Amino acid sequence: MNKGRLIVISGPSGIGKGTVCKELFKVDESLVPSISWTTRERRKGEEEGITYFYRTDEEFDRMIASGGFLEYAGIYGGRYGTPRDYVEKRMAEGKNVILEIETKGAMEVMRKAEDVCSIYLLPPTMRVLRDRLVSRGREGYEKAMERFRCAYDEIDLARAYRYVIVNEKLEDTVQSIEDILHGEYQNPADLEERIKTLKEETEL
């Protein structure tokens, strides 16, 4: 059995990482999600070992001390971490493990893990990203614009990833990731110009 790969998928808030990953799991049985540890309480409908691994603060601290996380962070009153042993076990089973993660955590994973297939999703335009953040209705306008300003700064980090995909159409993005897994994808030839244009086209 061939060992699976660790695939990191990142992108600015509002880019559609979750939607892309859900579609990937539907079309490719070799792909499985990485399941994180969390210290927050389980919510209705969530399941141990499927949504998260629910752990106490003491267990989380011991995991940190033992170096058991590929990355971890505190977000919105709880802590979340990517357990190294779970990822390595699934990879040993021949599964390609997808870690959908923000850029800061992704950089830590890329530093600690070997041969990470890192993928960054860029928006077609910053206006499209701004409209997605404002229209999805999860928060007020000011909070959405705060996320947009963070995204504006973050896209420069796309250069640190092995692959970059412009996430304009869901089916095209999914196909591009499948092409990456089969060694048939090339980054856009005008990547540097795309990043420059994204930064220049929208004033903050």
Brief account:
The chain is α/β, with parallel strands linked by helices and 204 residues long. 42% of the residues lie in helices and 20% in strands.
**SS summary, helix count:** 8
The overall pLDDT average reads 91
Instruction: Give the tally of β-strands.
Output: 9
Report on the biggest sheet. 5 strands, parallel
Low-confidence runs (pLDDT<50, min 5 residues)? none
Q: Strand-and-helix sequence, N→C?
A: EHEEEHEEHEHEHHEHH
Percent of residues in beta strands: 15-25%
Question: In what order do the strands lie side by side in the largest sheet?
Answer: 2-7-1-8-9
Structural account:
- The chain has 204 residues and is of the alpha/beta class.
- It is 42% helix and 20% strand.
- The chain is built from 8 helices and 9 strands.
- It has helices at residues 17-27, 57-65, 84-92, 103-112, 126-135, 141-154, 170-181, 191-201; strands at 6-10, 31-33, 37-38, 53-54, 69-75, 78-83, 96-100, 117-122, 163-166.
- The radius of gyration is 17 Å and the shape is globular.
- The chain starts with 5 loop residues before the first strand and ends with a helix.
- The mean pLDDT is 91.
